[in-house]
Structure formats: C-alpha cells, structure tokens
C-alpha cells in the first residue's frame, strides 16, 4: 500500500533535486553542482591539506586540521551522493511502496507523521545553527589578528586576489554545506525514522496473522506471501546501510577529530594565549553543531537496530 500524499520525506527530496546531485535534477543545476562546484571544492580542499607544510608549530597545525575537518564533512557528503547515486534512487523507489501510516488507525498514523515532522524541524534548526556558525566565523576575522580567511588555507602567491577568491569560495561552500544538511542528513534521518515506523507496522501485522487452521495449499501460499511482504523492508535497510557505510567512518573521523581540535584550540585560547570572546563563541558553536550531527546519526541507527 502506498504511503499517504502528505509526506514529510518530500522535504528532503526537494532539497535533493535542488542540490543538482540527484540523477533526475535539471541539467543546469547538475552541471553547476557536479562539474563546477565539486571540482572547485576538491581544489580548495587540496590547498587546505597542502597548507600543513607551511605551519611552524602545533597550534598552527591544529588550525589546518580544523579546516580539513570542517570542509571534510561537505566533501564526504557530496562524494557519497555522487558515487552511490543509483543506490539512492533505488531507496527512494523502494520507499514509495512503504505501508500507509494509517494502516492500523488514524491516531497511530498521526503519531507517526508527528515523528517525521519533528525530524524536519530538527533539520531546519540545524540550518539556523549553521547560519549562526558561519556568521560567527566570518565575524571573528575582525577580532583575531593574522587571519585572512574563515578557515585557514594555502594562498597561492599570497596575492590579495587569491584571498578574495578563496574567501568567496569558502562562503559558497559554507552555504552549500548548510544546505547539504537538508539533503544528506535529512535523507538519512527521515529514512531511519521511516524504517522504524515500518518495522513497528510490521510487528503489528505479524501479530494479526493467524497460522493455525490452515487447511489447504492455497491458504498456506497466502500466508507465505504475507510474510514475504512483511520482510521486504529489511532489503531497504541493507541498501541504506550500504549507501551510508562510508559516511559513518567519515563522520567519526571528521566529527570526533574536529571536536578534539576545537577543544584544543579553546584550551589554548583560555589558558595559554588570550583569545577574544567572539572567537571562543565561534568554537563553542561549532562543537554544539557537530555534537547535534553526531546525535542525528547515532540515535536513529540505534533505534532501527533495536526494532
């Protein structure tokens, strides 16, 4: 039975289409995202990594790793969406055959829709937090001496034109990273919640099946077909796990590593070298956002495993 028309998953599908990373996105959006922005992102990311050879102490090296960690989230998400694009389409297609939330009553269906609606609200909250984080990083440049870019990067030729170009690119990719939360993270979160709902419906359906009193082969075949229908969702779970397996590794590396670096810089700013309050607020905001991202990954996966 197809899911109802009022579907919160449409939120992430609209973001996915708008990103230009989906196979069905318009050619203009896809050209800009895949053939212009993605190569520029990889080029700038390479400059950030290359910048480590010019650092002279552990504090400067930690700032390079901060940049690598911050932009690594975007690089990982875009790469996974491009590499596993056919698999994402399969998951979307399989989801169109999920059971109706109202299968066991309107009240239960409303409860399920509220759960998916809460996920969309969380993603929008992450957007607001992301905008605040970007604004604080750019604003902190006015108070931290020696900083030319929000995230440190190798500047070819040390030219003012290179600084302007890199600054503009960082702002563009900051914006794209915030929007990517509505594409990648929302897709994962909503699919996890939806699978949990489907497994709940599956358990209810299994309890309604009665295997006693089967008197002929036709009734037995009907029961087996019902069981096969119930366990189709496990195939979707396997596809979801395959599509996001690399993401789990990248999230652990960039999120945990990035947070440790931020704590190190914050400790340095508080104990060893005086730092402005704006700079410390920027660090705390970054840590808070990354912590929420980790929670959005860990809790849904754990709940699905329980189901």
Please tell me about this protein's structure:
The chain has 307 residues and is mostly helical. It has one domain (9-306). It has 9 helices and no strands. The protein is elongated, with a radius of gyration of 23 Å. Mean pLDDT is 80; it is low at 1-5. It is found in: Cell membrane. The chain crosses the membrane at residues 32-52, 160-193, 247-267, 279-301.
Secondary-structure content class: mainly alpha
Strand content: under 5%
Unreliable segments (pLDDT under 50, ≥5 consecutive)? 1-5
Number of domains: 1
Distance between the termini: 21 Å
| Overall pLDDT | 80
Keywords: Cell membrane, Membrane, Olfaction, Receptor, Sensory transduction, Transducer, Transmembrane, Transmembrane helix
InterPro entries: 7tm6_olfct_rcpt
Subcellular location: Cell membrane
GO molecular function: odorant binding; olfactory receptor activity
Keywords:
mainly alpha, 9 helices, elongated
Topology:
Layout (H helix, E strand, L loop, with lengths): L8 H11 L7 H24 L7 H26 L1 H11 L10 H34 L20 H49 L8 H14 L2 H40 L4 H30 L1
Helix pairs in contact: 1-6, 2-3, 3-6, 3-8, 4-8, 5-6, 5-9, 6-8, 6-9, 8-9
Provide a quick synopsis of the model.
The longest helix has 49 residues, at 160-208. The protein has nine helices and no strands. Helices cover 78% and strands 0% of the residues.
């Amino acid at each position: 039975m197809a899911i109802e028309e009022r579907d919160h998953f449409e939120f992430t599908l609209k973001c996915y289409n708008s990103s230009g990373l989906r196979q069905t996105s318009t050619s203009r959006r896809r050209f800009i995202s895949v053939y212009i922005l993605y190569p520029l992102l990889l080029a700038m990311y390479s400059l950030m990594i290359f910048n480590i050879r010019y650092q002279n102490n552990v504090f400067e090296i930690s700032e390079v790793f901060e940049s690598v960690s911050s932009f690594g989230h975007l690089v990982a998400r875009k790469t996974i969406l491009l590499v596993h694009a056919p698999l994402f389409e399969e998951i979307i297609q399989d989801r169109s055959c999920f059971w109706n939330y109202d299968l066991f009553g309107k009240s239960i269906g409303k409860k399920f829709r509220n759960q998916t609606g809460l996920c969309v609200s969380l993603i929008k909250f992450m957007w607001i937090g992301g905008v605040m984080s970007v604004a604080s990083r750019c604003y902190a440049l006015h108070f931290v001496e020696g900083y030319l870019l929000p995230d440190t990067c190798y500047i070819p030729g040390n030219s003012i034109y290179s600084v302007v170009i890199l600054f503009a690119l960082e702002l563009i990719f900051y914006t794209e990273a915030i929007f990517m939360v509505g594409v990648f993270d929302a897709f994962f979160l909503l699919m996890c919640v939806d699978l949990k709902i489907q497994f709940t419906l599956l358990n209810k359906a299994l309890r309604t099946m009665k295997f006693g009193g089967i008197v002929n082969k036709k009734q037995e075949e009907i029961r087996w077909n019902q069981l096969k229908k119930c366990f189709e969702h496990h195939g979707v779970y396997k596809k979801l796990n395959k599509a996001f397996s690399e993401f789990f590794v990248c999230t652990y590396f960039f999120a945990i590593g990035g947070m440790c670096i931020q704590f190190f810089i914050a400790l340095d700013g508080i104990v060893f070298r005086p730092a402005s309050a704006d700079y410390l607020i920027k660090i705390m905001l970054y840590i808070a956002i990354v912590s929420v991202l980790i929670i959005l990954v860990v809790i849904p996966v754990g709940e699905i495993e329980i189901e």
